[in-house]
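Class, discuss our next protein.
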Amino acid sequence: MSQDQTTYRPEGLTANRTLLTISIILSIVMMAPVAWLVGLSIKDNKELMLGTESVFAFPYTLVNYLNILYSSQAFGWFFNSLVVAVGQTIGVLVLSSLAGYAFARLEFPFRRTIFVIVLFGLAVPEQAVIIARHQMFNWFGLHNSYLGLILPDLSSAFGVFLMTQFFRAIPREIDEAALLDNASPLRIFWKVLLPLTLPAQATLGIFTFLHAWNDYWWPLISATKKEMFTLTIGIASSQTNFAQSEGLGFLSAQAVFASLPVLIVYVIFQRHIVTAVSGGAVK
């Protein structure tokens, strides 16, 4: 049996390979600064004083990371950042979930007007209210405290909007079925609807954690005592001209140390982000 056999190329295979190639190139470009930072962190500071071209050449050392353990305040700053980031994340998730449920499921006077006012918060930059915020926190004596670092970002307009839209996407029939079982609105929220919003909460939680962990503007204003510095402020305060010229490896090790929690959080929860973005949360 002789029959001409024609080899068929899947449609769009060339385009897919092109996109894959572009993605790999962009990934390499984005990862290059990270690789450079890690390389600096494991080089001896004396060797780096002679030039940074030896970053990717042996020998390497862990002395910079050991110096973090024994001779720096990085762990204190790390703890401050952890308390602030976790506190903000929990607060935003609780408040945004409650507000989202109220706007999406409950009827009360001026509901739409209040929701529009909340959304106005997305258009107001933080710098526009920084003077009034600083004076308010100064009057109440909240500067140089965990409460002072956590409270300002608990009112998340983005979080309220995200959770409201997610609650609206859940079919009303679920609420009606729960009401037939004599469930109260609070019980419906806690036991029935809230578990369905896990992907949205994970997404909001990650964004909130990243913002709080990397925040520089407000901690720079509110935390004036060194023991209350977060990692972003603490590392910036150690970047003197002397440190940049003779302690470049140590500064790089601090930066790597500060970025590890962010990487761990994203790796653990990234599948929830994908689920939320793809809209596959509500079956």
User: Anything to note?
Assistant: The radius of gyration is 25 Å. The chain has 15 helices and no strands. The chain has a mean pLDDT of 82.
